[in-house]
């Protein structure tokens, strides 16, 4: 891992005072960036720091307002992704730009020159995928594949064009630690071949582990360029956030109360062909506990949330109980009335209606549980706008929601701020049971730490908190107990301090039966 | 000619416009554009084909005029929904209403005039085969075209690179755009292909089916064609089969009357829609197949973020 390009030499790609304005807002402000041949270069920054905008300009998806892009020393204009690919730039997107209705081979063929026949594409794809340790079946429909497999398609698709620079946008956010390790091996192979990698992430330890150099962005400006291995996570975080990120104080020593949330042999058949069936899920969360459920995306997390929240009730009432009362067959409103609160994964269109103002979103969620406060006129249910606005303002202040104006549309907030609002909306009720799915997905570090602290504080106050998350850092920050979901089965819960990343990784990787025994035995 | 042969001939004539119009709509919807203006484009094609045939004396020029008219009329839809990003459902409905109105206006002088029928072309040797010969090989050019187009569209969508792009755009226009596929341009072409097919279907009505001009002569076939696309779950082969099934049902009301079978004609004309509902219920059981075939971005407007 010698840092070939880290010192001097002419850069493969250089960016000079690149600026992108949206109206008067500078998403990228005079960015300078050098990527040497054969280096893994990290692009660090919070959400909204301008990483995506910068990368989109490099890949020809967005047109820069001003500034220059130099490719091998020559000034170039990149008007389209096609032009970027012709130059030798490949990209793996964070939200996969895959076509679910098409096969793997068809997806790959779409980004290649039209002269190549489909069967040849399939052949070449499976050859390359094995070469780089990313096995793929070219004939499979994308809709049937896991998130990790989908990412492999993206990577193979980029590699087929033999790029000199590969841009990866948050590639490990959806992978198990083992899958991530395999990805790092692939990246090392690419680097050994003399290719450059631009690696976008906000996972500092990863960046320190695999990257030769790092450029840090904040508010659209470069705030630092460094060798990440010479920095500490704290110093990198400081560059990203501008101030020290408040570290979450875990709930560790809470006094445990009664069992407030319980699932008993909960089984749910798959609702759609792409869904996962839940099999015999048992869990207990006491007051004062934060049970975190780890797992790779698509292993039944959404289905578990649906069953626990009552979005899709189950026929057996006893399968789910809230504060000791059977609730399995009750809907979401009934469960809210029993003192539970829920925060689903999707912010837009599920937890909030993007086009409606925050106050309306508040009423939509709590018009039954806080009926007396928010609604007047008995059966008429007239909304008390003044009261709702005061509550909305209180939530925004408590959770430090930054927004334009008093009561903007939910969709106009940044992901982190909207998420803070949505979590705050539930916390405001001080629910006895709170169930959250992916509370900080795609949220910047500052907002994430605010949200995590709020979850921990709620547990400290005696509530039972269930967090479903794919982010192990998050899980170790907030959890008092950890269980792992894999293919719709839930492992036993272990005290958080007894588990390591490696053990969780093994539980995640479908080695359910064996490792459960092993882990239990080890402790 | 036996009675069965005669009945089957009428089924073919009734099915051809359905197959053509829905095939065009299938391509348009595969690209993610829902054009509810099929009825309007069809009736415009019918009136223009009739008028041009009257003016030139050649039904073949009439057919070309029908195709061109349908394509141009769909271009209006394309401009409104793709360039100006108007709502596709509302624009499509408006296109139908507009087409019915304008065609009535254009066609007024032609009402009651006897038309020129597009003559069948007998294919040597093949047309001599007993029973099948007269049915399939002694037909007009539009019938041959309809079959060739089903083959062609199926090959195009599932074998050619351009067709793959069309399906990709229909599945996720944002991803397609990110790959550098020209979403808007492709959609324009798909919409115009849909218009051309609808226009051709209209020409078949006024030059083959009943060689004359009657106001609103499309008589709801555009709506049946729309139902047929869903019925066929966006697959050309199923569409061909469905087209003939619906054609048979729609013609059966006439035969039922002639034979004195007392089925209310309203029931028979509702049959294609009932059949579509039944098929939708049946295929929705196989969710995976439905999801893989249904264009996910159907009806959603696309604005590149630039």
Automatic annotation (TrEMBL), chain B:
InterPro entries: ABC_transp_permease (IPR001851). Its main location: membrane. It is found in: Cell membrane. It is a multi-pass membrane protein. CDD domains: TM_PBP1_transp_TpRbsC_like (cd06580). The chain crosses the membrane at residues 31-53, 60-86, 141-158, 188-209, 267-283. Keywords: Cell membrane, Membrane, Transmembrane, Transmembrane helix. The keyword Cell membrane applies. The keyword Transmembrane helix applies. It holds the Pfam family BPD_transp_2. This is ABC transporter permease. It comes from Shinella yambaruensis. The lineage of its organism: Bacteria, Pseudomonadati, Pseudomonadota, Alphaproteobacteria, Hyphomicrobiales.
């Amino acid at each position: 891992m010698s840092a070939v390009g880290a010192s001097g030499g002419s850069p493969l790609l250089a960016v000079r005072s690149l600026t992108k304005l949206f109206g008067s807002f500078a998403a990228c402000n005079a960015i300078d960036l050098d990527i040497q041949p054969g280096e893994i270069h990290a692009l660090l920054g919070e959400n909204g720091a301008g990483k995506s905008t910068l990368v989109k300009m490099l890949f020809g998806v967005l047109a820069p307002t001003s500034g220059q892009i130099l490719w091998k020393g020559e000034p170039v204009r990149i008007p389209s992704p096609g032009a970027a690919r012709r130059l030798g730039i490949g990209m793996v997107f964070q939200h996969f730009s895959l076509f679910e209705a098409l096969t793997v081979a068809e997806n790959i063929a779409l980004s290649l020159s039209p002269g190549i026949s489909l069967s040849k594409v399939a052949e070449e794809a499976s050859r390359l995928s094995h070469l780089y340790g990313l096995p793929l079946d070219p004939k499979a429909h994308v809709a049937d594949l896991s998130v990790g497999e989908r990412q492999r398609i993206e990577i193979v698709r980029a590699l087929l064009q033999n790029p000199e620079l590969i841009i990866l946008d948050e590639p490990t956010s959806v992978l198990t630690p083992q899958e991530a390790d395999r990805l790092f091996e692939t990246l090392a192979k690419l680097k050994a071949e003399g290719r450059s990698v631009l690696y976008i992430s906000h996972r500092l330890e990863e960046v320190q582990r695999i990257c030769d150099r790092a450029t840090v962005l904040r508010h659209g400006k470069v705030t630092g360029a460094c060798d990440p291995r010479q920095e500490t996570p704290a110093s990198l975080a400081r560059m990203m956030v501008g101030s020290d990120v408040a570290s979450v104080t875990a709930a560790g020593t809470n006094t445990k109360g009664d069992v407030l949330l319980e699932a008993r042999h909960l089984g749910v058949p798959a609702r759609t062909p792409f869904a996962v069936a839940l099999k015999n899920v048992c869990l207990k969360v006491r007051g004062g506990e934060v049970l975190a459920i780890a797992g790779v995306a698509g292993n039944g997390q959404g289905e578990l949330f649906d069953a626990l929240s009552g979005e899709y009730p189950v026929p057996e009432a006893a399968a789910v109980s809230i504060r000791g009362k059977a609730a399995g067959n009750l809907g979401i409103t009934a469960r809210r009335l029993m003192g539970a609160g829920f925060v689903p994964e999707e912010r837009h269109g599920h937890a909030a209606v993007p086009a409606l103002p925050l106050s309306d979103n508040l009423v939509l969620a709590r018009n039954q549980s806080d009926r007396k406060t928010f609604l007047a006129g008995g059966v008429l249910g007239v909304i008390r706008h003044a009261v709702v606005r005061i509550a909305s303002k209180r939530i925004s202040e408590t959770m430090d929601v930054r927004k334009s104006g008093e009561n903007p549309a939910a969709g106009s907030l940044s992901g982190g701020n909207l998420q803070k609002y949505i979590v705050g909306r539930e916390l405001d009720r001080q629910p006895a049971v709170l169930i959250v799915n992916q509370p900080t997905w795609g949220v910047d570090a500052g907002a994430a730490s605010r949200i995590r602290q709020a979850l921990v504080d709620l547990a400290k106050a005696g509530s039972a908190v269930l967090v479903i998350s794919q982010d192990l850092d998050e899980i170790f920050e907030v959890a008092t107990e950890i269980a792992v979901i894999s293919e719709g089965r839930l492992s036993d819960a272990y005290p958080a301090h007894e588990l390591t990343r490696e053990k969780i990784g093994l539980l995640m990787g479908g080695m359910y039966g064996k490792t459960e025994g092993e882990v239990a035995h080890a402790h | 000619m036996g009675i069965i042969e005669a009945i089957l001939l009428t089924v073919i004539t009734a099915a051809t416009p359905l197959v053509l119009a829905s095939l065009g709509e299938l391509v348009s919807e595969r690209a993610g554009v829902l054009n509810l203006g099929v009825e309007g484009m069809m009736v415009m094609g019918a009136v223009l084909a009739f008028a041009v045939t009257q003016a030139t004396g050649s039904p073949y020029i009439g057919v070309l005029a029908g195709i061109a008219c349908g394509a141009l009329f769909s271009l209006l839809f394309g401009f409104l929904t793709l360039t100006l990003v108007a709502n596709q459902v509302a624009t499509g409905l408006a296109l139908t209403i507009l087409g019915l109105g304008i065609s009535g206006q254009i066609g007024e002088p032609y009402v009651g005039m006897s038309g020129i029928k597009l003559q069948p072309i007998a294919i040597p040797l093949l047309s001599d085969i007993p029973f099948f010969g007269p049915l399939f090989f002694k037909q007009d050019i539009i019938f041959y075209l309809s079959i060739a187009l089903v083959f062609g569209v199926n090959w195009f969508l599932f074998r050619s690179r351009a067709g793959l792009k069309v399906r990709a755009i229909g599945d996720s226009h944002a991803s397609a755009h990110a790959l550098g596929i020209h979403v808007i341009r492709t959609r324009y072409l798909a919409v115009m292909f849909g218009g051309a097919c609808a226009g051709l279907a209209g020409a078949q009505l006024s030059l083959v089916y009943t060689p004359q001009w009657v106001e609103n002569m499309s008589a709801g076939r555009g709506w049946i064609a729309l139902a047929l696309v869903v019925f066929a779950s966006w697959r050309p082969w199923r569409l061909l089969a469905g087209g003939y099934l619906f054609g048979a049902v729609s013609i059966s009301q006439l035969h039922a009357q002639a034979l004195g079978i007392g089925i209310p004609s309203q029931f028979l004309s509702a049959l294609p829609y009932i059949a579509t509902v039944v098929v939708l219920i049946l295929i929705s059981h196989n969710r995976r197949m439905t999801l893989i075939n249904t264009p996910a971005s159907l009806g959603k407007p696309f604005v590149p973020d630039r």
